[in-house]
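Q: Got a minute? One more chain.
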Amino acid sequence: MNPTVTLSIAGSDPSGGAGIQADLKTFAALGVYGTAALAGLTVQNTQGVLDARPVEPEFVRAQVTAVLDDLPVAATKLGMLSNAAVASAVADLLEERREDFGVVVLDPVMVATSGDRLLDDDATSVVRGRLMRLADIITPNVPEAAVLLGGAPATDEKGIIAQARGLVAAGARAALVKGGHLTDTTLTDAFAHGDQIAILTGPRIATRNTHGTGCTLSSAIAAFAALRGDTTASGVSLEAVEQARDYLMRALESGSSWQLSRTPGSGHGPVDHAVDQREG
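A: Always. Here it is, folded:
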């Protein structure tokens, strides 16, 4: 029996909490075979992003092609794509070989948990104008959804519902708008697919260790969609999204008291991607 194959096209995080490193940890934890193509390099840790450099677009394309030519990818997660040239190269390849990518989960990484900007305006235009329409689901947080829609950030549940519906109206097949930036005691996300809307809630976990939560959630959605047999024909199921949220909540809770940094009172630590192995 062969394992289910998933692919991440994203940037790196040498501290291991976000980016490709978080994606591969999530894939392994959830039982899929993870592959990865680096689209950008960062110098970062739990305290913030110190530097970031893109990978040559043709080299990104060559990495992805090497995977697609050899392995049957069931789902792909798109993360930090660095600049317009890299984002365009990925969009070109998606248009040429859409079925080879399986279900596509687009995490429009624009700003790190620390507040550092990770995507320039030109690249944002490619995400909005091309990649959003090629993906099966887009998973922005409130500020990212506001950028994509050209409006003000949502401040409540009604606002994130409007953002999710707005992204679908703008061309997204489905949208999960994450309400982590809201201040309610309950964590609320809005999932829109066609005319349907689902409100997903859960407890808000009090912790500084939220580095890489967006990367972890989007790669978990890709993993569960692949394991459930979601396809480009069916799109990403609500059940895959719910399973991914549940995994992230458990990872957040398990890692909530970690103090990995030499200065744990500042910055943002990672979640516990191996929560299920520790609990087992």
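A: The mean pLDDT is 93.
Q: Perfect, thanks.
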